[in-house]
Structures are given as C-alpha cells and as structure tokens.
Amino acid sequence: MSVEPFPDPGSPRALFGAEMRRLREAAQLSQAAVAARLGCTQTQVSRLEAATRTPSKSDAERLDRLFASAGGTHFASLYRRIGTRRGGPIWFRGWAEEIEPNALVLRSWDPLLIPGLLQTERYAHELFSRGPGISSEEVERRVEARLRRQQVLNREPAPLVLVLMDAGVLRRRVDGPEVMREQLDHLLEMSRRPKVTIQVVDPECLAGLAGAFMIAELPHGQPDTIHADSPVQGLITSDSEFVTSIRNRYESVRAWAYPEHVSRRMIEEARREWT
Fold first, then answer.
1. Helices marked H in the chain — which ranges?
2. Under CATH, what is the fold of the domain 12-86?
3. Which residue has the higher pLDDT, 9 or 119?
4. Model pTM?
5. What number does CATH give the domain 92-273?
C-alpha cells in the first residue's frame, strides 16, 4: 500500500529500502526469493525497497539474519532510526502509514479522548506533553505525525469516517477552556463533512469500557484490520477472530449512541460550558 509515492531519498525508510536492495542484488537473490525467506509477498518486498511500506521490527530482524550484516544489527539500527525521525510509537507506523490511508471506511470508538483523527494541534500537543519523561522535541515530532496522519481526511476520495465517543470526553479538560472550545468547534466543523459521522455515546454504556479501538475496511477484498489501544503497545491485526470481536463490540457501543443531530447539539452545549 503506497502512502508516500515520492519518499525523501535521505530518510531512514529510504535508506532501509536501498540497503535491502543493495544486499539482495549482491547476494544475487530475486525479490521473490527474499520474500520466501521473509515469509511475505514479493509485492511487500518491492514496497520495502521502494520505501512505500514501513518496515516492521520483524522485517528488520529477519533481514539481519538473512544477510548477516553488520554483526546482525544493521537493519535493526535503521528501523530504530525510522522511529526516531517519524514521531510516535514505531508499532503504530503500519496503521498510520499503510492501513488508514488506504481504508474505504474507518470506524472508531474512544471512551476517554477526542479521537486522534479529529484532534486539534493544541489539544494533541497538551496530551503528548503530559507523557512521562517525554522531551519537547519528541512532543513536537508526535504532534507533527498526528497532523500528518489527519491528511487522510482530505484525500480524494475521502474515506467514510464513523466516530463514536463517550459523552464525558466533551467535558474532560485538556489544557484550558480556550483549547477545549477550539477543539469542540473543530468537532462541529468536521461533523458537517458529508463523509464524517460523529455520534456521542451515553455514559451509561458499559460495553466500551474495555478501551478505544478502530476498524479499517480496506479495498480489493482485503480483510478488515483493527487497532485496539493499549498504554504499552496496541494490537494491530486482521485476524478474523479479533476483527469479529471488535466489530461486535463496536455494534454494542453504537446501540448506545445518540443520533447525529442530537450529538451535534450535545457538542454545542458542552462548548458553551467552556467559558
């Protein structure tokens, strides 16, 4: 799935792909042969080399074993550099750069915060700055990554985005009243887009207390993929058992959601309270 058709040639991801191609050709291996050894498809190998696919930690580890380069840590080092440069957790890259940008439909549920796709810059900045031990440079990288991620809403054709959020989110203070008013104004603006649906969920809904999640419906018959949140490392998978479980939970939460026009009115009322 190509997200950056013209990647920065000096980026760690481009260097990763260039090194992969160089070592493959030096070993006189075809892309298909490398794919067989990595346990993936030839297309995935091609995209890694072209830097249009973000490598995973397992990709790096398998390539280090395959080419036995630099004491077996060459690709692992490049993988860590990708994480340092892009901002945000490395494990989330595959979702933000490959799954989300290609989705036809994105469904989300958040019981605690405004979803990342709909956060304003100042709201996101405050959230990241409260992370334990985080540097100001890392905060800026993560905010930049979040805003870049939101560009999926402006693509043509845009995905259908179906957002569920707990009513308490509207009154959970993040920074000051000005930031909250700006954030709720942004929600109202986004709710007017024809392909964005925002519904507030009754706080008595217990089905969603297990945590936030997203479901991506992908094109060309690809299986749906889910992202389930965690304080340490979220789960990203297309395993049918997990996807079915999350889809069922989404429907359980949606049963407690207010209609769009009622939800919009609730956002407006909460916005007036932030004075």
1. 12-26, 31-38, 42-49, 57-67, 74-86, 93-94, 121-129, 136-149, 177-191, 240-254, 260-273
2. 434 Repressor (Amino-terminal Domain) (1.10.260)
3. 119
4. 0.70
5. 3.30.870
